[in-house]
Structure formats: structure tokens, C-alpha cells
Amino acid sequence: MEGASQVCRNCKRSMASTHVALHEAHCLLFLALCPECKEPVPQGKMDEHRENGHQETTECRERPAECKFCRAVVRLSKLETHEHHCGSRTELCLDCGQQVVVRMLAQHRKACPTEQAQRRAETSPAPEHVSPSGSCAALSEPLWPSGKWFG
Asked: Which residues does the annotated region (Disordered) include (predicted)?
């Protein structure tokens, strides 16, 4: 039954049945469907999306765009949702051993209590998108299987 698929009750995306429970738990907490375009939008950004997301634009919303956290290439129309989830992951700070939210890594490195981290932050501040694992692909698979979100 590996190939069976189901549809998320919230965002209406199709995915492998094995991923639905985890996806729906996360999706129901953080996403809502825009009533106008039917795209999943972070709940806290719905007003902004409705004001700015439906304006006529000359920019192609289906063009490739790079995630600032993991450097994965996704469609521009899905970038906001991807970065919301990707930046919400935690990574282990290799200097102090704390789990840090990815979107806060740059700030953490500047304030990290270890002397080694302080020197590194002063000489070469890390961009926000660099993480020890270098990618969120393995973590995002249960939430965005087989290109249904970004393909």
C-alpha cells in the first residue's frame, strides 16, 4: 500500500498516505487556504497575502526561486510557505550544543556563549541560510512529498 495517496483536509494537497497524519497536524496549525486563490498561506500572513498576493504582476510566480535557509530551488509561488516551514526547523549549534530555530541561526551565532563562536561571528558572519546540514530536503519530505508542493 506504499503507492496509496490521500488528500490533506486543510490544504487539499495529495500525498502519500503514510505522510498525511504528520502533514495535517502541521498544516492545520500553521496554514490556511486563501479563499481567493486556494493556495496555502501561513495563517499569520493571510491579510498581507490577500492585499499583496493577488495584484497583477509582470513577475512570473512559477519561476524558480531559492530558499534563503536551505538554498533549495522552489517555485516563487510556493517560496513563502516553504521558507515558513524551513525556517521553523531547529538545527544543532555546533559551538554550544543548543538547538536553535534555523531563522535565528545568524543572530544566535553573534550571541553564542562560546569563544569560538564569537570569533567566527566577528570574522565571518554566517548568512541566515547556512545550516550545519546544508539542506532541509530530508526534513521536508513528510510535509511536501514527491513534488506536490514545489514541483
From this structure: 115-137
- 38 and 98 belong to one structural domain: no
Determine the number of helices (DSSP H) and then strands (DSSP E) in the chain: 6, 8
Q: State residue 117's pLDDT score.
A: 59
What total number of domains does the chain contain? 2
Distance CA 88, CA 99 (A): 12
- Give yes or no for a contact between 68 and 136, defined as CB atoms under 8 angstroms apart: no
pTM of the model: 0.43
101 in a structural domain: yes
d(CA 49, CA 41): 7
Check whether residue 82 and residue 96 sit in a common domain. Answer: no
Q: What residues are paired with 7 via a beta bridge?
A: 14
pLDDT value for 151? 41
